């Protein structure tokens, strides 16, 4: 595949999980966050010689493919100039909390990935790695052709960009299921059957949203086939936004 370096903007659990899987799969990784390269000494040391720290703009420039793993509320701080012409993986999800609501998302006028694409007008946004937790990402990878290989959905408006992301997912140890355009990406967002639960099974009863997130972060991974992804994607649209309350 053409991707040998993955740029990572945002070093929360999602960004670091993707970086760990990429390094283990033989790719180089350039890590960045809003606090500066000096704050990434520990993660870089843990990831090893294939990783280095940089600014977000430098990570965007260095990556053959870039994952923008920042909170959706911070998407307008992504470096547009350096991401122009790049394929950008969007793992962001809309979560409602005090002080952050987006009427265009609440009304289903846009999906969150269409909002990101609007900001990154000269990049090619592909929604992926948003509905599987970092722990499951690091547990469920399998070689191509394995009978229990897990699939993950992706959505995007550019066919070549989607193929590029599918090739990356294959290297990381996953099959890809194309759900359509960015306007279709709601099919795997929060409040749908494809969000999180297929990869972890049934949670304990009575969890609050915050407790649910904590449970998912620690739950053992459950393999999910491409056929199952396609089945679960055939659903109706629910309310926008995972509600953190």
Describe the structure.
- This protein starts with a strand and ends with a strand.
- The mean pLDDT is 94.
- By secondary structure, the protein is of the alpha/beta class.
- The protein has helices at residues 13-24, 41-47, 56-62, 80-83, 103-106, 112-119, 134-137, 159-172, 209-218, 226-233, and strands spanning 5-9, 28-32, 51-53, 65-68, 87-90, 95-96, 124-128, 151-156, 175-178, 242-243.
- The protein has ten helices and ten strands.
- It has an eight-stranded mixed sheet with strand order 3-2-1-4-5-7-8-9, sandwiched between helices. A two-stranded parallel ribbon has the order 6-10.
- The chain is globular.
- Helices cover 32% and strands 16% of the residues.
- Helix 8 (159-172) links the parallel strand 8 and strand 9.
- Residues 6-94 form the Pyrroline-5-carboxylate reductase catalytic N-terminal domain.
SSE layout and pairing:
Elements: E1 5-9, H1 13-24, E2 28-32, H2 41-47, E3 51-53, H3 56-62, E4 65-68, H4 80-83, E5 87-90, E6 95-96, H5 103-106, H6 112-119, E7 124-128, H7 134-137, E8 151-156, H8 159-172, E9 175-178, H9 209-218, H10 226-233, E10 242-243
Tally of alpha and pi helices:
10
| Beta fraction | 15-25%
N-to-C CA distance = 42 Å
Q: Give the biggest beta sheet.
A: 8 strands, mixed
The SSE string, one letter per element, is EHEHEHEHEEHHEHEHEHHE
Strand count:
10
Radius of gyration: 17 Å
Question: Could you say which structural class the secondary elements and strand pairing correspond to?
Answer: alpha/beta
Output mean pLDDT.
Answer: 94
**What gross morphology would you assign?**
globular
Physical arrangement of strands within the biggest beta sheet? 3-2-1-4-5-7-8-9
Fraction of residues in H or I helices:
25-40%
Poorly predicted regions:
none
Pfam families: F420_oxidored
InterPro entries: NAD(P)-bd_dom_sf, P5C_Rdtase_cat_N, STEAP_metalloreductase
Keywords: Oxidoreductase
Protein name: NAD(P)-binding domain-containing protein
